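Reopening this one. Same input as before:
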Amino acid sequence: MLINILYLLRVKDWLKNLLVFIPLIFSNNLLNSHYYFDLVYTFFIFCIASSFIYIMNDIVDIEDDKNHPIKKIIKPLANGKLNILFSKYILFVLILFLGVLIFFDNQLLLFILFYIILNITYIFYFKKIPVIDILVISIGYLIRVEGGSQVINVNTSYLTFCAIFFLSIFVISIKRKKELENNIQSRESLYFYKSNILNIIVYISMIFSFCSYLFYTIFINTNLLLTLPLVILVFLRYLYLTKLTTKGEFPIDVVIYDWKLLILIGIFLFITINSFIYF
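Same output, byte for byte:
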């Protein structure tokens, strides 16, 4: 039962909420330990909010997930290991818990409300519209970053926002492309996508994301110029892995199950963190 609840909550996808720590790193506040508790608290709030959205999405998409070759195995609602009524109880507990957390620290209230409303409209409307569905999900990642900025009272640069926004489009476009290639027609928007169009979006978003980061290193922190080759290698490695396997449909799996990609990201983070601490 516990394992199925964890799958329902999509605990593995909580890694996406680590974006709230981006402002801490890029504002040169890593040594300000008094920010740590607030950011961990923010991370946890976004984890609860995202799990709420994941469960709601799984309830709405249960019939489509039953016809998905992978989701019908890994999702507890689609494979029948948990029922919808129990999932609704979990939803109630999550929203109650979220309300309590925000009550004690309401500076994230607007961010969480916007995040939840945006994702609910995505579940019921925007996910059916091609391109818009990708943009809406990408905005969700920016909300996480801006939430982290709000908590530690810093302004995240527009170049950082652009790099993350286009990186999100890059990853999600590959996800759509893999769904299309695997003939998974569980999304209405997929009927309007073409593989060549998605390829264009993938490569354009990759270039824009890299250029945004390049301009950041040139105009804001030249010490990060050393990381540019690593960024290129991460992009190329991700492209390579998603071409070889079906994991492009599950971005977190692509990263955490490939040791080479993890090493590249680890080195990137090591150099980045040290560039802000020692320079």
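So the earlier flakiness isn't reproducible anymore. For the record, The radius of gyration is 19 Å.
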